[in-house]
């Protein structure tokens, strides 16, 4: 009986990328900014940086982010976050004290912003052979500011932000908006992101091949198959994994990335 030959892999025509903690180093920027606020605020200094940072990230990632943003506005939402964070340290802040702490944090956050290592060069490289879109949950102005900070405006063909779309990842609608803007079918696309739920499950639900960016070496959740990348460097390996699934070189690349996460990427 004749062997069935495997069909050749489809060409990847669009790469979708998450913004926070995939391209822009949101977590470690937050960590450093929280630390700077903590060092000058005695009641915050009673808790460890690690505890405070985790608490802050939990407050940031609440499921009602977009409805709260629409109801309160960005500034009030940030102040509310600092009010709640102070309460976890046993401090009851007045609205003006919470506003002051929020402004201080914001100033520090802006001053210590950084890209995920390799992100800027990887996007430029991907853009030579595919359309590039960013699909991200957050405020539009905030994500536009991050794109501008990264200096990638000319290498990104679509910036699709949940505040503007009215739906957040993992809802399939936000991925479909991105595909429409890029003019590319789901099966010709790949999505790279750090959130298993938002990026991997979300992309899979929209028919897009996901690649999980597991930068902090988290345990792999149960669920659908997805290739995994632990560092954006070396760029050639990351590029082949994203653009060349099923090709022998790409399979080797994935294994080598998996087996050698650089120490700087762990926490
Ligand atoms: Mg993310």
Write a structural description.
The protein is an alpha/beta fold. The chain has two domains: about 160 residues, HAD superfamily/HAD-like (Rossmann fold), CATH 3.40.50; about 80 residues. The chain contains 13 helices and six strands. It has a six-stranded parallel sheet, sandwiched between helices. The longest helix is centred in the middle third of the chain and has 17 residues. The C terminus is likely disordered. The site of magnesium ion has 7 residues, from loops.
Secondary structure: helix percent: 40-55%
Helix/strand order: EHHHHHHHEHEHHEHEEHH
Q: How would you write the strand order of the largest sheet?
A: 3-2-1-4-5-6
| Average residue-wise pLDDT | 88
What's the count of strands? 6
SS class: alpha/beta
What fraction strand?
Answer: 5-15%
Instruction: Give me the Rg, rounded.
Output: 20 Å
Low-confidence stretches: 246-267
Please state the second-level CATH architecture of the largest domain: 3-Layer(aba) Sandwich
Hetero groups bound? magnesium ion
Detail the topology: elements first, then pairings.
Blueprint lengths: L13 E4 L8 H14 L2 H4 L3 H12 L4 H8 L1 H15 L6 H17 L7 H8 L4 E6 L3 H11 L7 E4 H4 L6 H11 L6 E5 L2 H10 L3 E5 L13 E3 L5 H9 L4 H12 L8
Parallel strand pairs: 1-2, 1-4, 2-3, 4-5, 5-6
The protein binds magnesium ion.
Magnesium ion (MG) binds next to loops.
